[in-house]
## 1
Amino acid sequence: MGGTLHRRHASARESKLSEPATTEPTAVDVRIGSTANALQPVSSAKRSLAAGRSQWLILALVAAAAILADQLTKQVVGRTLALGDSVDIAGPFSIHHVENSGIAFGLFGSRTSLVIAVTAVAVGAMLLFFARSGRRHPVLPVALGLVLGGSIANLIDRIRLGHVTDFLDLVAWPAFNLADSFIVVGVAILFGALVLGDRSHRMHGARGGDASLRRR
């Protein structure tokens, strides 16, 4: 009798060991391409925006090219045209040699010291902004390089000569130079890249958040 009970217990243990496990594994929600808390995509996770070596190099090259082009054209105009002389090019556009002691397009004339101080502060502020946000947008080094190059080119003239040489004349608009053009173009690119780019990013981010909520 005892042997029979022993065989039955042994058989029961063997049957339990041979039965497959019925416990279901716990589901793990793994989100590929997200932050450590799996709640925010990597693309929108916080990352350093400080300018790197490549951004500084591009900024320096663009600024140097802008300064060189501006200074060369001013030298050519100063050597070929007397002050006040002009050469008609096409329609209302002409090359007109004038001097400007103010800022772009003749504003704040006869206030050279104030203009120099304001320009120097602006250049410093732009460099600080770039050091902290140089990777914010791919075109930022080019755009800010144009603005810096134009500002520094005119600043060189004001410190060295006390005035800036302007020569691009559209009759209905105050005469200007290449440095002024670089500043305007650079500011326009900055506006488009930062303001419009950030607005588009926020719109896409909101849509992505709504879509993730609907999937949940």
## 2
Amino acid sequence: MKKTLPLAVVFVISLFFGAAVARAQGNVKSGPDPTTIRDPELEKDSLHNLEVARQYFKLRKAYVAALQRCEEIIAGNPNFSKIDEALFIAGESNLYLSQGKGKQKSSLYVRHEGAEKRTLTPDEFRQEARTYLSQLFNDYPNSTFRKQAEEDLQSLGGPKPKPDGSKQEAGGRRQEAVVRKLVRVRGQTISNRSSNSQSEIRNPKSNYVLSRSWLGSVRSS
């Protein structure tokens, strides 16, 4: 009886520490949280865009087209179940465009700044690559794409530190600008709701709406 009691105590302690370790491991992100509630139609649309991006990236070496597809996923569906892969393809596509690689000229990638249209310089493509790959490296440590991202970041100055609140706000404004560019590129339309004056972006093909409230959620993600 005297020997049984210490054994029971040891057993209880081991269970306690085992649970603590399991909780700690559970806090490590291997990808987007699988418990996140996602819009089925938006998820389906993002999966389609990712599959198209894979084809452009791996088979056609069309890095401008691959980048644009991934930008649409990242800006429009930040809780996407495969967002880490979208970040990887976006980062690598920017890196290859900065090096003049691929079957598409980097000048085909255009950004709208007011009435002006311009492409990015090689250094700007490199900075974009570093931003996307750093987000992958920092936010998804168990992603299967993290090792390659880490290797490529070495030539880009290393991973960027995680942004503070003010930088996240700036990042949100950048993603809003990406959405507006995609509106022009993909033939979407912008309209205003007279009921609440919220600007919204509607995609006729998938019939979903990106509202100002959604853009606010992008900034906080």
## 3
Amino acid sequence: MIFRYKTEISVFAIIILLCNLHLFTNSFPENTALFPDKLFSGEWWRIFTHYFAHLSWYHLLIDSAAFLILFFSINQKKRYLYLITCAAGSVIFPLLFSKIIYSNGLCGLSGIAHGLMIIAALEMVENMQTKIIGWIALSAVIMKTIIELTVSPGALLFLHFGNVGIPVAECHAGGIVGGGTIYLILKIRSHKKYKSAHLYKTKNINYSKTFSS
């Protein structure tokens, strides 16, 4: 898989490296993290760079690994559309519903990764061989986000071995909503196209039988 997607992986690696140069000096991603006030005052690049900026090497490792594995595991033809919708949801939700990002900022790929995890799980659910694993993964990521939203954003921080900052639950929820919504929309459209094509084919067969008789 690595050799097949080496160009895309190389591009992502370069972007991630450029957005995390601050880690070499053990500093905060002041110029790349998303601060709403700075974004709305004209620093538009933050809407893109904040996804790739991280607080620590550990944070970078777990986020990037999850993102790359999931991104290259899902449907190849739709993965960039999935990426865009997961990214959109993971930034729109915190901008609308989170207070903490207005003081602490927002950075990391975890919101997108949560959305991609939902998509990967839904794809596994459709496969008889991976259906059970898919349901387990789907339930786990949804339950994790519910706990973060209802109990505390940091309720599961004890599971980490390094600094990941304070999780923004709204970011994770937005990624899930974005990923799940686009997956279901495309699924419904695909079903309607299949149904229409099947109906057209059936009509043609019936017409041919009538004509031949």
## 4
Amino acid sequence: MGQAALVNGRFITKLRCRAIPMDGHNDLQQSHEIFVHIRIIVGMILGISIARLVSGVTRFIQHPGKERINLLHIGWAVFTFLAIIHFWWFEFALSRIEHWTFESYFLIICYAVVFVMLSAMIFPDNVGEHEGLKEYFWNRRKVFYVLLLVLFSVDVFDTLLKGANYYRQIYGWYYPVRQTLLIGGTIGALLTASERYHVWFVAFALVFQIIWVVSLLDVLG
């Protein structure tokens, strides 16, 4: 069951996770309970992101003359919203994982936190010395694209976490092409100050995201 060691006059027992044999049904039940436990906290974090995006968009409805809709800014808002709800939908595939580690748990939490950071960059609490959301976003775009680069990179590990069989069955050749183009485009956005490039890139990313969602549209579970 474990190993006992004498420490400061006391016997300390070191338990091992797999000391107690479990049948397949119990293993599956325990795995599901762990997944639900992790899914709850991830849902709480993603809820913060969605709430910020929705409340941010309502500014345009509440004060139509105060804030102008900018294609670059609103494009990334829509992209982030789609990415969040799609992420949460397909994270159900994590229920396939039989044995969870802290590293896997930490990765999923970090993935969700990046969404919060992206949402905060799109709709900040206040724009400070900037005239509006458009100017704020443009002046802070490099921070946004660094976070976006982190998001696309973490997504690769998250996808592999679901297992090789799931990857071959669901993603195939399209996923690596998609990720390569998005990561390359993000690096390009970090290196150029051309507003035209940024507008075209967000349009490209949005189209890719919509195709990605539609192509993988399925019944949950």
